[in-house]
Each structure stands twice: as structure tokens, then as C-alpha cells.
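Quick one: structure for this chain?
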Amino acid sequence: MNEVKKGKGRVQLLLVAAVFLGPLALATWLYFAGQDMMPEARTNHGALLEPIINLGEVLPVSPLHESGDGHWVLLYANNGACDEACEYSLYTLRQSRLMLGKEMDRLVRVFLHGDTAPDTVLLAEEHAGLITLQDSRLKDLLENKKPMNLDAGGYYLVDPLGNLVLYFRPDIDPSAMVEDIKHLLELSRIG
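Got it. Here's what it folds into:
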């Protein structure tokens, strides 16, 4: 009978030890052996424009302020006439907004063109809702804020408060740009 009590006592002692030591052993194993289960580091596809400037303060009379109207703005800047590369960029702008899905109403598209007016027939047929602007001061500001090592003619993201936030290269994959924008929209409570 004493042997049966000793056997039960040992089993209970082992169970109590397992309750306390089990989670510690599991955590140690996950820490050292589970490195491949860790989430990947996040990389942004756009370049953060630092220091962030408020376009309303720097350019108080820019027509961009009326266009944004409390929305996120995805702006494409083009200096010359709208050639094939420009038309493809406008297509990318449109597709990027559509790829946002239910969040697309939070973003407006703006085409900042140079001295040559864009083809209004093309814009009406293929880019409904696209806002077109000509603002040389805004164009100069954007060109100066863009990282010098990156190509001109890219995309700029402006938050609903008028802050110039990100720059995307002109040859960026639309899904990469949308990934960054979706991440910002998830974190933002404005716009």
C-alpha cells in the first residue's frame, strides 16, 4: 500500500513540475529553434520624404488643396507632354486606386502636368475621376523633395492633412505601391 501511495505521489510531483516547467521549455524551444517561424521584416517600397512638409503651409494657394478635400492624394507628376510612358503611369495610378478595394474612396488621383495640356478625350474615356492640375510651384517643390538618387516623374502620396509623405519611383510595380498605401490607410484614422 505504501508503494501505491509513493507511485501516486511521484506522478503528482511530475505533473506539478510539468505545469511549471513545460511553458518555460516550450518558450525556450520557440526562441532558439523557431527562428524560421518569425514574421519577415517589413520593407517599404516608397521613399519616406523627410522632413515631412505640409503643402498647405508651404504653398497656401496651390489648387491641390481643393482637390484633396480631406482625402489621401496619390499624385503623378509629369513635366512634358503625355507620351506613352505618361499614359502608362496614368494607368498605374488608376489601377493602384482600384487595387485598394473598399478603401479606394479614401484616395483621390491627381495628375500634375507640365505646360502641355493632357488629352481630355483620353482622360474622360479611360481615367474618369482623375483630377488634372498645372502648378509650377508645386512641381518645383516636389522635384526638390524627391530623393536625388531616384528618377523624376514618379508618384507622391499626400496625407489628408496636406503632408507630403512618400515618393514612389515611376517604374514601381502597382501592387508594391498599393501595399505601402494599404499599410498607411490601416494605421491612419484620418481621411
